[in-house]
Design a protein that fits this description.
By secondary structure, the protein is an alpha+beta fold. The chain has 17 helices and 24 strands. It folds into two domains: about 10-245 and about 385-395 and about 430-480, FAD/NAD(P)-binding domain (3-Layer(bba) Sandwich); about 255-380, no CATH class. Residues about 1-30, about 35-55, about 400-410, about 415-425 and about 475-485 have low confidence and may be disordered. The structure holds flavin-adenine dinucleotide. This is FAD-dependent oxidoreductase 2 FAD binding domain-containing protein.
Length: about 475
């Protein structure tokens, strides 16, 4: 098996799931939720209605307090202040934001201005995400949004965007304080386990609490499922009539027993060809756990081995008096820490001068750059992978046709509807289910996966934003004089 990665990242095999600093936006009060036990059949409000939610009985429930759910809730509440918005999160909110990017949170990617180019970074979704999806809220919009909230961001050479603080807590604190400011209720430690639609076009949700065995029932006017790669989320989508593309790990880590790699965590490579050789694998073994995996990395996939040898030799001649650790060919985009690691694997000391390197050592170095071997002892287990492909198919979301500007021209002069359809763009533009109205999806629950570099969070921000924009909320004339911002 051989595949080329646009970017290859070294990650720690074991990621510690640290506590989220600010856990809930608002106290976990029952902000307008209508709840009953199954036997009661009659709904009672256990909340003390605030002045705001007295005006409106409409409720948006967001399943999942990850990037997509929180961003979607913020957008919906910003546009419809009279809508009751409740996020139900079974674990800790924004827990993946916390651990992402080695704890720095790679918020988005700043190198893809053209949305067509941006969409190419999504193996699943590239066709549907170009057009309206990223035009409505792309990386530049995400960066502006965080900047407007006072979060300073920086774009690194490879396009990855991080908070200047180099801490994901900055992003979490920003999102949590927006939830609080807007009055979004965040209920943690509760999982939405069942969902059905009612005759009145609402959603009846079964919510399980850690402490109570009996589920509570909530009736929602709008439902945003932003449950990431959780099986429960897929189940909710199925219960509401959606099909599920089988989830498979898309971006995951290999376990490699090399203590020195631990210190190299977070290094990325501009272009690497990775070949995974699987030895001792027998056919018909569903899981390759019994096989030996040999990962071979080529850090110069576009350079022939002979050219590589001459690049290294020329470097030696030019920088003969320099130490190996301080001077190395820049052509391969390697960082110093990794270069020193490669030297170590060749038993070469960083203080050695280039002049004293033998011809054999130069050849070995060139081969190491072309065929760097790692013995893989396993892969991260389900739940620990970075990104999952599969989930709700994009074909079941959003009326994904938007008219082309050429439409009137073709109607007038050619009159062919078929030709017009050929120029209609296909793109996600509301995130609403085609099967259930008022049901929305955003983030990883959809069959979208991005390569590393901030593309997965961008999918979550864009999807959440579009869903939040598309959720109408109560008619403002009926509930007061709060205008919808543009
Ligand atoms: C270690 C790691 C590092 C990563 N680094 C990056 C990075 O640097 N850049 C990048 O772009 N992407 C990164 N990713 C991927 C990125 O984190 C995800 O693509 C992104 O978090 C998806 O957002 P989401 O809101 O769709 O899902 P999630 O962030 O997974 O949020 C879903 C939430 O829903 C909750 N939930 C699920 N089911 C239910 C239910 N039934 N009831 C209540 N709550 C429920 C879950 O507990 C979870 O909190 C990383 C992922 C991992 C694991």
């Amino acid at each position: 098996m051989s595949f080329t990665l646009a970017r290859f990242t070294l990650a720690r095999s074991a990621v510690r799931h640290s506590r989220v600093r600010s856990e809930a936006a608002a106290p976990a009060k029952n902000n307008g939720l209508l709840i009953s036990t199954p036997k009661q059949k009659k709904f009672t409000s256990t909340a003390i209605p605030t002045a705001q939610n007295k005006a409106s009985e409409e409720l948006l429930v967001v399943v999942g307090g990850g990037a997509a759910g929180v961003y979607g809730a913020i957008r919906a509440k910003t546009l419809a202040p009279n809508l009751n918005v409740v996020i139900i999160e079974k674990g800790r909110p924004l827990s993946k934001v916390k651990i992402s990017g080695g704890g720095r949170c790679n918020v988005t990617n700043g190198h893809c201005v053209d949305t067509m180019v941006l969409a190419e970074n999504y193996p699943r979704g590239h066709r549907e995400l170009k057009g309206a999806f990223f035009n409505t809220h792309g990386p530049a919009d995400t960066m502006s949004w965080f900047a407007d909230q006072g979060v300073e961001l920086k774009t690194e050479d490879d396009g990855r965007v991080f908070p200047v603080s180099n801490s994901s807590s900055t992003i979490i604190d920003c999102l949590m304080s927006e939830l609080t400011r807007l009055g979004v209720s965040l209920q943690t430690g509760k999982a939405v386990v069942t969902a059905s639609s009612t005759d009145g076009g609402k959603f009846l949700l079964g919510v399980e609490n850690r402490t109570f065995s009996c589920p509570e029932y909530v009736e929602a006017d709008y439902l945003l499922i932003a449950s990431g790669n959780s099986k429960q989320g897929y189940s909710l989508a199925s219960q509401l009539g959606h099909s599920i593309v089988d989830p498979v790990p898309s971006l995951f880590t290999f376990k490699i027993e090399d203590p020195q790699l631990r210190d190299l965590s977070g290094i990325t490579f501009p272009k690497v060809k990775a070949t995974l050789k699987i030895e001792n694998a027998r056919r018909n073994i569903p899981q390759l756990t019994q096989a030996c995996w040999n990962l071979i990395l080529d850090f110069a996939p576009d350079v022939h081995i002979e050219d590589l040898k001459s690049i290294v030799t020329q470097h030696k001649n030019k920088f003969a008096k320099h130490k190996l650790s301080n001077s190395y060919p820049s052509e391969f985009g390697l960082v110093k820490r990794f270069w020193i690691y490669l030297l170590g694997r060749q038993d070469l000391h960083g203080d050695t001068l280039w002049a004293s390197i033998s011809k054999n050592s130069l050849i070995s170095l060139a081969h190491m750059l072309k065929n760097c071997n790692f013995y893989v002892t396993g892969k991260s287990q389900y739940k620990d992978e970075f990104v999952t492909a599969g989930g709700v198919p994009l074909s079941e979301v959003s009326p994904s046709l938007s008219p082309s500007p050429f439409l009137p021209f073709f109607f007038t002069f050619i009159g062919s509807v078929i030709l017009c359809l050929a120029f209609v763009k296909i793109s996600l533009n509301t995130m609403e289910s085609k099967i259930q109205s008022r049901l929305f999806f955003a983030g990883e629950v959809l069959n979208v996966d991005g390569i590393t570099g901030g593309f997965n969070f961008q999918n979550a921000w864009s999807g959440g934003y579009i869903a939040g924009t598309s959720i109408d909320g109560p008619d403002e004339e009926a509930v007061g004089d709060v205008g919808r911002p543009n």
